[in-house]
Amino acid sequence: MEKMEKIAVLMGGTSSEREVSLMSGRNVAEALASLGKYEVVPVDLASDSLDGMPADISRAYIALHGGWGENGGVQAALDARKIPYTGPGAMSSRVAMDKIKTKLVLEMKGVPTAAWSLASPGTPVSPLPLPVVVKPPRQGSSVGISKVSSPDEWQKALNVALDAQGGEGEVLVEEFIPGREMTVGVIDGEPLPVLEIIANGGWYGYDAKYFSEETRYPFYGEEGSPVIPACPPEKLQKIALDAYNALGCRGVTRVDFRVSPMGRCYVLELNTSPGFTAHSLVPKAGMKTGLSFAGVCERILLCARHD
Question: Residue 210 catalytic?
Answer without folding.
Answer: yes
